[in-house]
Write a structure and sequence with these properties.
mainly alpha, 0% strand, 1 helix
Length: 40
């Protein structure tokens, strides 16, 4: 458990970044679709 705790500390920011990128990419695509449907 100690090793996991030590490994998790430097990895956490990377997890948040990748998670945020996934969320922004998905929401960005959805927003683009809505925008295109409204203008079309």
């Amino acid at each position: 458990m100690e090793a996991l705790g030590w490994w998790g500390v430097p990895l956490t920011p990377f997890l948040f970044v990748s998670l945020g990128e996934c969320l922004t990419e998905k929401s960005g695509r959805i927003l683009l679709r809505i925008f295109q449907e409204r203008t079309a």
